[in-house]
């Protein structure tokens, strides 16, 4: 299992954060 790149981490963080920038996807 390879380590995720910075871009992949950023994409995951952006996907997990809600529109107001919190960790609430709702």
Please tell me about this protein's structure.
The protein has 26 residues and is mainly α. It has one helix spanning 6-16.
- Identify low-pLDDT runs: none
Question: Can you summarize the main beta sheet?
Answer: none
The radius of gyration over CA amounts to: 10 Å
Mean pLDDT: 73
Distance between the termini: 30 Å
H/E series, N to C?
Answer: H
> How much of the sequence is in beta strands?
under 5%
> How would the global form be characterised?
elongated
Q: Give the count of helical stretches.
A: 1
Q: Helix/strand/pairing class, anyone? A: mainly alpha
> Percent helix among the residues?
40-55%
Number-wise, the strands total 0
List keywords for this structure.
elongated; 26 residues; mainly alpha
Short summary of the structure?
This protein has 26 residues and is an all-alpha fold.
Topology:
Elements lengths: L5 H11 L10
């Amino acid at each position: 299992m390879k380590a995720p790149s910075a871009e992949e981490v950023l994409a995951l963080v952006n996907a997990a954060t809600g529109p107001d920038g919190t960790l609430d996807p709702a």
